[in-house]
Every structure is written in C-alpha cells, then in structure tokens.
C-alpha cells in the first residue's frame, strides 16, 4: 500500500515579492510572454519572447517590423509582460507597462537580449545576422517597455 502524501498547510498560499525580489527574478534569463490588445474581434495577441532586463530599468524585446505584433504594440502603446518559474515552488512576475521605444535596434541592443539566451561566442554573429537581414521573418524591431505596475506571487509558502 502506497504511503499517503500529506500536503503542507502552506500549499496554495502566496505572498507578493519585494521590489528587489521581483526585479531580480525578472532579470534572470527566462522566456517572457508578451500580451497586447488586438485590433479586431480576436483575443489579445500573446506570444513568448526573449527579453532583456536590468533591475530598475526597462524591459526590452525584439519583434519584426510591420508584423501584426509590432502593429498592435504601436497602436496600443502598452502591454503586459509575464515570466514564471513553472516548477514547485511556483513564482511569477507580470508587468503592465508603457512602450517608450519602438525602432530598428542597434547591435548593442540586440546583444543585450541575445547574450541572455545564446552562447557568448554566438551573440555577435546573431546580432549581425539580424541587422543584415538574415532572418527571413523580417527586419528586427527593438521595443522598450517601462514597467508601470507589477503583479507578483511566490507560492513557496
């Protein structure tokens, strides 16, 4: 007979992260999920993305110029951005923010994002490939989001 599992009395309880905790969590290299209101009867556009963030700063993502996501972001001027720790103990940070920059990236801006996800020796080549039109999905576009509101939870009890 299998032993019964007793649930900890704190399971399901959460607490808000402190400013330092939420900023550190967002600064870790995770895949973010960006969500922006639609311009038709479709639900909000919600897509995973690489991003860059330094505590106290803005969130930066790269999208494709002229594509639906880019157009929706330009039109709305605001969006939600979320990252999570999907294993127990669960944790998430969601930012509601204002777009403060949306333009062709510099190499340095691309490197700030790519270095979080690619091996160090591949980052410069990736940034040059992006800027040189190598990505068949379109020209890169750098978007910077100012965090206006933070929603957080830590379910570690």
Produce a short descriptive summary.
The chain has 157 residues and is of the alpha+beta class. Helices cover 24% and strands 35% of the residues.
Report on the structure:
- By secondary structure, the chain is an alpha+beta fold.
- The protein has 4 helices and 7 strands, in the order H-E-E-E-E-H-E-E-H-H-E.
- A 7-stranded antiparallel beta sheet has the order 2-1-5-6-7-4-3, with helices on both faces.
- Strand 5 (about 80-85) and strand 6 form a beta hairpin.
- The protein is globular.
- Residues about 1-10 have low confidence and may be disordered.
How many individual helices? 4
Run of helices and strands: HEEEEHEEHHE
Determine the N-to-C terminus distance: 30 Å
Kindly state the number of beta strands: 7
User: What form results from the Cα inertia axes?
Assistant: globular
Spans of at least 5 consecutive residues with low confidence:
1-8
Secondary-structure blueprint of this entry?
Blueprint lengths: L18 H9 L4 E5 L8 E5 L1 E3 L5 E6 L3 H9 L1 E8 L5 E13 L3 H8 L5 H12 L8 E15 L3
Antiparallel strand pairs: 1-2, 1-5, 3-4, 4-7, 5-6, 6-7
Helix pairs in contact: 3-4
Task: Jot down its keywords.
157 residues, alpha+beta, seven-stranded antiparallel beta sheet, 7 strands, globular, disordered N terminus
